[in-house]
């Protein structure tokens, strides 16, 4: 009887210690995984850089569409 | 730096839908998605007016503000683009957009509606320029080729303008100065009598 009680106490100590350690681990993980401030997607300077060029093709578009302006 | 803008001269639009067709063809847009649409008000009545609508590439884009995965970004040309790799197809951008620009390849609720698709101002997406993968996801990258959006270049009545905001605004301003606007425009009173006021 005495032995059984001793075994139960040991088990409780073990579980207590294990539980305590788990809680510490969870807290540590929570600190590590704390979400950063939300940030918009940034594909990098290369892809967000300017693509528009005022080529002859583009100038022709402006010229054709603005022919009323050119009539003057 | 030039800011890319669309401007539809509603006095010139004849609802021919060439812009819609050109867009679908150039980008191989699948069935069920229209990146550009022509909206007509007062259809068949005096004062009927059509306007070609697509993503207007807002300065402070509401789609980008509500996106839960932040998949939108604005380029140096002020074109609003998005990453289909990040998009979860939640549909928030569709509800936020005042122009109804975001489209989805499938019709159903969360997730299963597919990746959002919208007008890219012919500037495609975040993949390397003019590659096969970029074309498959976002369509042609005409801006990188030194061209402008095909919808505007195809417009037979020169209604749809695209390009540097300052230049197209100057072109439109000059048109209004010369011909008037709405019922004051040339031909309106001939077509709809002198009583028309729009």
Automatic annotation (TrEMBL), chain A:
PROSITE patterns: TAT (PS51318). InterPro entries: Formate_DH_TAT-contain, TAT_signal. This is Formate dehydrogenase region TAT target. It comes from Mesorhizobium alhagi CCNWXJ12-2.
Automatic annotation (TrEMBL), chain B:
InterPro entries: 4Fe4S_Fe-S-bd, 4Fe4S_Fe_S_CS, 7Fe_ferredoxin, ET_IronSulfur_Cluster-Binding. Keywords: 4Fe-4S, Electron transport, Iron, Iron-sulfur, Metal-binding, Transport. It comes from the Bacteria. GO terms for molecular function: 4 iron, 4 sulfur cluster binding; electron transfer activity; metal ion binding. Residues 4-34, 78-107 form the 4Fe-4S ferredoxin-type domain. Pfam families: Fer4_11. SUPFAM superfamilies: 4Fe-4S ferredoxins. PANTHER family: PROTEIN NRFC, PROTEIN NRFC HOMOLOG. This is 4Fe-4S ferredoxin, iron-sulfur binding protein. The lineage of its organism: Bacteria, Pseudomonadati, Pseudomonadota, Alphaproteobacteria, Hyphomicrobiales.
